[in-house]
Write a structure and sequence with these properties.
alpha/beta, Aspartate Aminotransferase, domain 1, 4-stranded antiparallel beta sheet, 15 strands
């Protein structure tokens, strides 16, 4: 009769074998298969880890979550990373952390202004609104799609207390200016690093400049857990507050299944509670439950080992696409890296020039019909969407370039699942479109 350990080993062996068979069945057929804009990229290691975690039946965060949090913080060179159930939740936790009463006079309060952009993904801005803060929008540059530095400087007012901006599709925004403003005006800096894991600015990873940062592990991103995200910081104080917001708002910071880490579980006074009230059930923040499962973290542990190769593949694919599309630069505005940066690209962004002789929709429809997936640069101008028509906000200058993005910008994929065969097919489709023009 087999032992539990022997059965487990056999299950994992068969899982590895199944993963290998699936991989062998994958192949690209030009004109039939799709060239995805993004997607999960994995092999047997992720499937083995996933099954291994499921066999423990520890369904909340556990040993794999601990392993990932430690490994991810080490990769970035930070003291703390904590897992959450999505990149959007990571943004919510990161900004909410800065509203904590534990921060004293530095806490963000309702009515305080947060500098951001309207061009991007909504959940960079949503936590500002959800925390009753006021987003202050500045325009972006075309080609790099980051906030215009001169507008950032103009945006500062006596009410400005924080900056929260995403590095667009892997391209770092001007962190030199952001850091300068944060230091000069005593502002919090929150980096939305969801699209930019592995990008560098002045040789240092994005997500490590600000006081707190976020990352996403959705299948479209640099590594995946299916769903999932992380909050990163180099501050023990902010990390502890962030965990509180993630874990129901409780004051206790014991790991799951542990008790009395602080050694004072029944000997403290909180609010108007009785002296010695069980610290595990004391709540210092109006929080959430935004944890993820250990099965997701197990996938992430396998992905994290491959991250350097994923970053290299994204950079190579982006460079190949730029070389292929260079002949059409008179009609397409091609992307460029922010000065001083080394992006880990999320996608290849294209803006159709004003007098190109065709529209974005005509080009994207042509590509989509031939199996080349395209995506708009997320929401374009967020303020033109129904949900944001009546929010309290301020705009500095105009959002002319943001409107250009809304009307004429899109991106295609560079993720590691795209091979030279895919890229050659993409090049053929662009050539066919322009030949007809």
């Amino acid at each position: 009769m087999s032992t539990p350990a022997e059965l487990r080993a056999e299950i994992l062996r068969l899982t590895r074998e199944l993963a290998g068979l699936r991989k062998q069945a994958e192949h690209f057929v030009p004109g039939v298969s799709k060239v995805r804009y993004a997607g999960r990229f994995y092999d047997a290691e992720e499937m083995v880890n996933l099954v291994d975690a499921s066999l423990d039946f520890w369904l909340t965060a556990g040993r794999y979550a601990d392993q990932f949090e430690n490994g991810f913080a080490e990769f970035l060179g930070l003291s703390d990373s904590l897992l959450v159930n999505s990149g959007s939740s990571a943004n919510l936790v990161a900004l909410s952390t800065l509203t904590s009463p534990k921060l004293g006079d530095r806490r963000l309060k309702p009515g305080d202004e947060v500098l951001t952009v309207a061009c991007g993904f909504p959940t960079t801005v949503n936590p500002i609104i959800q925390n009753r803060l006021v987003p202050v929008f500045v325009d972006v540059g075309l080609g790099d799609y980051g906030p215009l530095p001169e507008r950032m400087r103009e945006a500062i007012s006596p009410r400005t207390r924080a900056i929260m901006i995403a590095h667009t599709l892997g391209n770092p925004f001007d962190l030199g200016v952001a850091m300068e403003l944060a230091q000069k005006h005593n502002l919090w800096l929150v980096e939305d690093n969801c699209d930019s894991l592995g990008s560098r600015y002045q040789g240092k990873y994005t997500g490590t400049f600000g006081h707190i940062a976020s990352c996403s592990f959705y299948p479209a991103h640099h590594i995946t857990m299916g769903e999932g995200g992380a909050v990163m910081t180099n501050s023990e104080e902010l990390a502890r507050i962030a965990r509180s917001f993630r874990d129901w708002g409780r004051d206790c910071y014991c790991a799951g299944g542990e008790s009395n880490t602080c050694g004072k579980r029944f000997t403290q006074q909180f609010g108007t509670l009785p002296y010695g009230y069980d610290h595990k059930y004391v709540y210092s923040h109006i929080g959430y439950n935004l944890k993820l499962t250990d099965m997701q973290a197990a996938i992430g542990c396998a992905q994290l080992e491959k991250l350097p190769d994923f970053i290299t593949a994204r950079k190579n694919n982006w460079q190949r696409l730029r070389e292929m599309l260079l002949p059409y630069e008179d009609r397409l505005l091609l992307p460029h890296a922010t000065p001083g940066s080394d992006p880990s690209w999320f996608g290849f962004v294209v803006t159709v020039r004003e007098h190109a002789g065709f529209t974005r929709n005509e080009l994207t429809a042509f590509l989509e019909e031939r199996g080349v997936e395209t995506r708009n640069l997320f929401c374009g101008n967020l303020l033109r969407h129904p949900a944001y028509q009546n929010i309290e906000h301020r705009v500095v200058g105009d959002l002319a370039n943001t409107d250009v993005v809304t009307n004429r910008t899109f991106f295609i994929g560079v993720y590691p699942g795209i091979t030279n065969l895919h890229l050659a097919y993409v090049a053929e489709q662009f050539a066919a479109f322009f030949k007809a023009r």
